[in-house]
């Protein structure tokens, strides 16, 4: 019977669409997506039709992509979970330890302590939490952190003035402007102001441009996609000559992830809201990086048996059984995917912890490069 095959993911409505930024920064507990309508009795919908919630503009675009998920065939979902679980928490811990050891070695040899400056504009709770976590992680490995907090109504000029000061400060080796910025600011002007040699987020157009070019290397690679690649490498997933699909094309994750896979000699497709037949394209991939911010978009039937899956999504979905009233799920239906894939990251505990680990690694690399320390 179809209903016995339906997985937990089938109850996650496609209306629970969130922009990727929001997906990367789960909202506080007051977020309560309402449940979608019941599946049609005639057809075993794996993702239910969109509930009548007001869709955000990006969410509306993503709805086109999600619609394809409703055609997923439950028969392709195998009975037993067989995928290796890629433990991002463990890998991130190892990386933080490695970074700590290198920082101590550098300090002993040169007296230099790497420094990271973080600029936060406004008082978004999620951004404050991320900045606090970055600061704590810096302290733990021996990076000195510098913090500037500006009010929501600060001017672009003020932000750029602080960036310029950090650009000129020799004790600062990395500069990070926490995103998103208030609406009245132009991200591009601000990110352009960061010295490309201190751009530990890797968001400067020159660094992204170098990432895209053959025979050039950026000073820095954006932290989340770099973390995805590190998980693939450290899990022994071969990339050279393989087919890869990146789902999502954001500047922060999807686009740089696709460029990194291509640099590692994968044949890369990018699936996005205007892609026709995303399921069919995804099913050809040996490697999938899902970074779209749509809960459980990728179903078991989208996955080639044995594929490696890196799930960047962090989406809150209703869960009355949880004390918080919600739980976090990825862009990939873990329950189904873990029965088909060869390896998969969990959510939480997959890519999430890697982002800060990569930031620490980028800051160390910057200090080493500036001080010519090998
Ligand atoms: N907001 C969401 N992700 C990121 C990130 O990786 N870096 C910065 N600066 N802001 C973010």
Automatic annotation (TrEMBL):
Residues 23-44 are annotated as: Disordered. Keywords: Hydrolase, Multifunctional enzyme, NADP, One-carbon metabolism, Oxidoreductase, Photorespiration. Pathway: One-carbon metabolism; tetrahydrofolate interconversion. InterPro entries: Aminoacid_DH-like_N_sf (IPR046346), NAD(P)-bd_dom_sf (IPR036291), THF_DH/CycHdrlase (IPR000672), THF_DH/CycHdrlase_cat_dom (IPR020630), THF_DH/CycHdrlase_CS (IPR020867), THF_DH/CycHdrlase_NAD-bd_dom (IPR020631). One of its GO terms (biological process) is tetrahydrofolate interconversion. Residues 222-369 form the Tetrahydrofolate dehydrogenase/cyclohydrolase NAD(P)-binding domain. Residues 86-201 form the Tetrahydrofolate dehydrogenase/cyclohydrolase catalytic domain. Residues 25-42 have a biased composition (Pro residues). GO terms for cellular component: cytosol. Pfam families: THF_DHG_CYH, THF_DHG_CYH_C. The keyword Oxidoreductase applies. It catalyses: (6R)-5,10-methenyltetrahydrofolate + H2O = (6R)-10-formyltetrahydrofolate + H(+); (6R)-5,10-methylene-5,6,7,8-tetrahydrofolate + NADP(+) = (6R)-5,10-methenyltetrahydrofolate + NADPH. One of its GO terms (molecular function) is methenyltetrahydrofolate cyclohydrolase activity. Catalyzes the oxidation of 5,10-methylenetetrahydrofolate to 5,10-methenyltetrahydrofolate and then the hydrolysis of 5,10-methenyltetrahydrofolate to 10-formyltetrahydrofolate. PANTHER family: C-1-TETRAHYDROFOLATE SYNTHASE, CYTOPLASMIC, C-1-TETRAHYDROFOLATE SYNTHASE, CYTOPLASMIC-RELATED. Belongs to the tetrahydrofolate dehydrogenase/cyclohydrolase family. Homodimer. This is Methenyltetrahydrofolate cyclohydrolase. It comes from Hordeum vulgare subsp. vulgare. The gene is LOC123402225.
